[in-house]
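Subject: mismatched residue count in predicted assembly?

I count 1914 residues in my input, but I want to confirm that the predicted structure covers every chain. Input:
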Amino acid sequence: MMQVTDIEFKSAEHVIEEIENMNVKGGSPFGRAAAWAYKLVSDQEKFTNVKDLKLRYDRISSEMLRLKPTMATIYNSKKLVYNLLDSIPEDTDVSEIQRQVSELCASIINYSLKAVDSLGEYGSNIIQNGDTIMMHSYSSALMSIFIQAASAGKKFSVICTESRPLRESRLAAKILQSYNVPVTYITDASVWEFMPVADYIMMGADTISCNGSVANKMGTALISKLAQSCKKKVYIASEIYKIDLRTQEGQPVVLERRTKDEVIQDGDFDSLDGIDIINQFFDLTPAPEIEGIICEFGVVPPSMVTSYWGKLEEIVAGN
Amino acid sequence: MMQVTDIEFKSAEHVIEEIENMNVKGGSPFGRAAAWAYKLVSDQEKFTNVKDLKLRYDRISSEMLRLKPTMATIYNSKKLVYNLLDSIPEDTDVSEIQRQVSELCASIINYSLKAVDSLGEYGSNIIQNGDTIMMHSYSSALMSIFIQAASAGKKFSVICTESRPLRESRLAAKILQSYNVPVTYITDASVWEFMPVADYIMMGADTISCNGSVANKMGTALISKLAQSCKKKVYIASEIYKIDLRTQEGQPVVLERRTKDEVIQDGDFDSLDGIDIINQFFDLTPAPEIEGIICEFGVVPPSMVTSYWGKLEEIVAGN
Amino acid sequence: MMQVTDIEFKSAEHVIEEIENMNVKGGSPFGRAAAWAYKLVSDQEKFTNVKDLKLRYDRISSEMLRLKPTMATIYNSKKLVYNLLDSIPEDTDVSEIQRQVSELCASIINYSLKAVDSLGEYGSNIIQNGDTIMMHSYSSALMSIFIQAASAGKKFSVICTESRPLRESRLAAKILQSYNVPVTYITDASVWEFMPVADYIMMGADTISCNGSVANKMGTALISKLAQSCKKKVYIASEIYKIDLRTQEGQPVVLERRTKDEVIQDGDFDSLDGIDIINQFFDLTPAPEIEGIICEFGVVPPSMVTSYWGKLEEIVAGN
Amino acid sequence: MMQVTDIEFKSAEHVIEEIENMNVKGGSPFGRAAAWAYKLVSDQEKFTNVKDLKLRYDRISSEMLRLKPTMATIYNSKKLVYNLLDSIPEDTDVSEIQRQVSELCASIINYSLKAVDSLGEYGSNIIQNGDTIMMHSYSSALMSIFIQAASAGKKFSVICTESRPLRESRLAAKILQSYNVPVTYITDASVWEFMPVADYIMMGADTISCNGSVANKMGTALISKLAQSCKKKVYIASEIYKIDLRTQEGQPVVLERRTKDEVIQDGDFDSLDGIDIINQFFDLTPAPEIEGIICEFGVVPPSMVTSYWGKLEEIVAGN
Amino acid sequence: MMQVTDIEFKSAEHVIEEIENMNVKGGSPFGRAAAWAYKLVSDQEKFTNVKDLKLRYDRISSEMLRLKPTMATIYNSKKLVYNLLDSIPEDTDVSEIQRQVSELCASIINYSLKAVDSLGEYGSNIIQNGDTIMMHSYSSALMSIFIQAASAGKKFSVICTESRPLRESRLAAKILQSYNVPVTYITDASVWEFMPVADYIMMGADTISCNGSVANKMGTALISKLAQSCKKKVYIASEIYKIDLRTQEGQPVVLERRTKDEVIQDGDFDSLDGIDIINQFFDLTPAPEIEGIICEFGVVPPSMVTSYWGKLEEIVAGN
Amino acid sequence: MMQVTDIEFKSAEHVIEEIENMNVKGGSPFGRAAAWAYKLVSDQEKFTNVKDLKLRYDRISSEMLRLKPTMATIYNSKKLVYNLLDSIPEDTDVSEIQRQVSELCASIINYSLKAVDSLGEYGSNIIQNGDTIMMHSYSSALMSIFIQAASAGKKFSVICTESRPLRESRLAAKILQSYNVPVTYITDASVWEFMPVADYIMMGADTISCNGSVANKMGTALISKLAQSCKKKVYIASEIYKIDLRTQEGQPVVLERRTKDEVIQDGDFDSLDGIDIINQFFDLTPAPEIEGIICEFGVVPPSMVTSYWGKLEEIVAGN
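Triage response: the counts match. Full output below for your records.
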């Protein structure tokens, strides 16, 4: 099983600091970090009245969303906490509210950690002996699948694209190497050439929109489109917690652009006059191209993905 | 106009040396280098009989084809020289044969240098003010087009993929920069994302096969395939001299794989056990996806490309 | 916000008259008109027993469905009223039944008027500054989206097809003009030519079938099909009330053909011997081609559309 | 057989006048008109020296190309005349030159008139009893095919799109009506709906580019693209004389935009502020989508089309 | 209406025997047979304690799943019985448990028999006078549709592929013949040739996976794929009971391969050295290619199919 | 090398008899048989004047074309003979004419036999070690390719569809077996399932039309269409002699339908009332789907195929 662990956060401020310093990485860790922030406030701090407590929560929320405005999981943690706050009778004791929020956040964190395990098992069921799987970039959900399949003794191999600019797939290749899964490592431009060799494609997700389309590392939509012309299925591995509920109301998934320094190196150009380096980091894969989203509820059709959010809410609420 | 110049070769052996040291780059320079080798033998060396002369030519041919077995232009230069040899009456004086071969080779070299200019003009006619063109990798034919269009005062911009592993497009971007052509520089995985912004695609060729399909830098076929799904035309810029005539007989274009060192850097992996780095350097774009091959005879349908070889032969033969 | 207002109906007979005279236009107005008919009967007329009341309702129903047999919204209003009638105990006082039906119909009318506003807001969230949107024909739902986006200060432009034979898009162009939204007005045959310029497509719906495919003005399916080949998303704006529940049981959406007089003008032909003018007015766009249906519940995957009917029923029933 | 007749031109100036007054219509009539202009100068006017004669030809050429700069057939007539002029020895008598030009132009005119007959026969061979053919706009080449098939007693029917804005297909429908060919007349937006009913598609050409792609009435490329998704073949009927030889050198086919008055009617809009009516009149259908170009040399693959220009030149030169 | 009848099973052992002897055919009969086995145990056998009863059920389950490990309907019957067992309080009387299991199984059997009727009615609603429908292989669900449509007086015709190797469509053709439905009988390789003649395609299902993709007789996916390129809709007729719930957890639908004897005949080959006859009997049609699954709940989008399993459970449980 | 031998024809009448008795099989044998008929008349029979000789030739021609009206190769042999007759001066001696026709026919026969060898070599160059090739039906041209590749020691395997109704691929499988080429034998309906396993597809031709589309055994076009959606190239192996020159003039390739007895067996149906068995034996694969036609001139683009007919004519004429 995948050993997913979070930073040992000391306080809500520590959470915000680590987010600011970019030590939190990946959609799920962000969601848990947000839950940790609310939890640590609830566990560690004292409030004389409800109004002050809520102001405190508000400050944390706006701070975290200021740093990562597009991160669905931070938004989701906030939403669950505020739904709870809204449901608690006005006259409840402030410490009781803190207790309930702390409990909810513990539940969110716990749920999130288990979700990767569950989807890893479902995804590993897809993998059969002899399969060759193309992947792209790095995804802890994907790693959970491969590790469970390898640990179960299945013999398969993986084609890793290097995934420029950051070449995150090096990490994926090393993990697969440590589990004795043979890896073929290719450049991103080689995916069409190598696609006939793959049996299917598995990729991760940064964010899922409510109609089941998936934002993920640049190149994911390209691979998915090409897969349609080569009779290959595309699976996306992701926890339901990565759904961006704002997309239900028509809000677009914001696809981050990052700094040009990640794309070029010293000495590449004497000057950038007239040269616009664009490091568009994410793209959007349309739902109809996705065979299934491998999540903690099984392998589900992308268009059905929002119907699982309600189940998630029930589980973290302990119902 | 594009200033294409060759290495100043001192002798046939020098040609071979420079090929071996990888100082000759690009299909057309290889073809001219081969012509130079035959020319220098013919101009500089003395032979007492025809048999010795032919043995000398044979040695040069096999040496060059040993170093670059798949290079169509080397094969073509050889073919033209040997066609001439076959047509010269047996009893011709050895120095007369040398003179004729030298003349032919001078004609080949001259033809090749002019071809890039001609196709540059035809290609620049395609470009209209306001156009945005996606390109991939580096190609001197492509540069000839862009330089002629820019020099003619046309206002257009170019989207350059970085073209891993060697990122040759940096050179293209610098040349375009020097001609004040705005460049957008993106990763290879971004081509599907940026394709709607392009008006059409222009790419070069390493080798053209007789049915009009084109071997070029890895990623060319990927871009071409995606262009079909985005209503964008694909042009290939290439001299006719890059046709591999052996493909007429069913021989496949050999698509070079290069060393893995070009793909990975020191420190990427502790060990490569179980990790197979494949640096497939060329791919093959199918003829029906290509709107036109921009060559020295104009913009021609890919399927018609072999019909221009005969015209080329006539021109270099001085008929 | 869109000022949607209905005819001020005086009586159930007046409703039927206005339907007959074709003064009621668009799926939603038909649904509300039907609700008005039941409401006016309930409010204005006196019945001594339940049987007579039901006979009266029956007569209205059959009259309206005779005039517009394929109109899903008339069918839906009838269905909701009769579901209520079925649920009321046999021995309820006739005036109490009238009161409940009147209340339900008021609720239906109110719901319908608000739905266009809600979907307008969700749709306007999709629109970003600088977007170019292709639309086809006229749709009040679509107008609600554009007006809300323009009113929110968003800068976007719209490509309107003329939408033969009736060229309804003239009305759309005028409304957009009044909100200072730049319009490009083209013939229907030009959509493939102009599609690369559009960022996405938004169209309305006459009827939605239970699997999410959409009947709309002739040309909608053509545009949608072409959009698939040009990397453009297709959104459909429509209230859920336009679902034709009969399609769940396999009944096809009946695609109206209208009179040939709308297609030809005086003097076009001396005689129509041997010339069959077909004015097929609606076509059917397949669900998998639709990115999302913009409805009062948000932007939902077409295949999920029936799951929102239950929610609508609950809301209009006041639960 | 199709009765094609030209205007009875009185003089070169008359030709230019009729071109200016838009009384010459269709690519082939323009080419013949240009030939008439050169012929009438040669037959009617007297020149004391060759220089004056050539100046006169030059003035006619520039006048006609100024009025219709994009018309390939005018350009082709000029090209053939000037090729002849270039081939005549410098010291030839001026009246002999006039005689030769007159003869060439008579040959061009004659060739053009016969070409429509020949292609009509070849096209009619394609039509089998029971076929349903979809056409678009009006084309005299197409009419020649249908008339020959009908005259040969074949029983077939034709689906005519109205072809906005000018609805030229009304003329096609009337001609078919007069030959008792049943016509189904539909709006342009209906082509996707009716395509399954058609067995194949036949359309005309305004201009053919050297790679076999075809400029024709707006909507032709749309229909062709949709035909690819419905297993229907697309034939283009056109004389070889419509090839635009300038496209060989990369020059784009200029796709005419015409006046907005053709698209809108009085009263459509109070003002056009903010409304841009674009009457793009032609579009470009890609060669690979065309099953065959029905020309005077038979039904030929579009990519081969330029190879027939040489044959045309030989025939009009009387060789 | 379709007369579906099961074997008159005498005992649980008899059920297993008939399964072993391959006298039970088709997904639904297998599911009912499994229900009969549990029912006959419950009705006919006596148990002194609950543990023994459960051991008995266990033995039957493992026996049936050993014989048909991939059969979803056997698995489903087991799952429903064991869900019931789990819900019964520990201390319930053994005979009461038997009674409840017997009742549940009767309900399952009854439900299954009615489901084919219901879907037959919904499917027949799709069929309009004049329609031509392409089908493949044999399916009792499909027959139910055709029989109900024919019995309702609809005039339509059916294209039957022979469906090698067993040519089950002969049975379909005979049944259609007996209902006076005209049949065109073609080889499997002819489906692309005849597809333009069909209005749509209807096929059956062996198993439905949770994402709506459908396992059915080899050739189904081929036909479905081709239908996408010919503008034809694909319907699948199947009871919900054929859903394989294990696919929710990523388990692949196991696609049976059968004996080579079904493919070759005596005398076809002298020896099979070096010849591998593969009789892959089922293939998998992707959900996005399917217009609708015609089931007992109506014509539903394939991606929604699992949401109907819950309704089925409620109905057979009598809630 | 493939041992192609013809029947030892005794006389022109014997040729006609063997054609009538269906002992001549395959396009090339038909063409040679026709040449044999003209040759045997010329060699064996005596004529006192040219008119009688020509009448005799006419009778043979019409007899053979009556029996096989659609067979392009019979038509081609006739055309070549008559072209020769037309070119011989009127006053030539009758025996001299006979000599020349006999010589031409010997040349045709010889050319045809060598063509299969040549294309076999070119095709075998395509095959690389480790390749898996999908084929369909039987074709002697295809066998020539496989035999030459196997004889050259290449290791490859072949997927054979059974090719209903006659299952000609059994013969192919046996020949491959005798050359130790591993064969996978599948039903026709399995081609989409097995396509990902194939590296490319090779099929034969019955007739080639002038635009390069290919008539071949039913299923060829189906496989070719599916190959486009699975990134597989389609090669067609055929001598140029199979071009049907009548298609240049728009004449369609006539696609034979054969007797229903080949499709059904005794006992399949009690009666065929209402069941129409259609044994459409050939279909037409569009040229743009074909990567190359493997012929005696190499691997050529389908659209160029007619340009090789002229070369063929020159060779058989001995020029």
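The CA atoms of residues 5 and 201 of chain C lie 27 Å apart. Marking this ticket as 'not a bug'.
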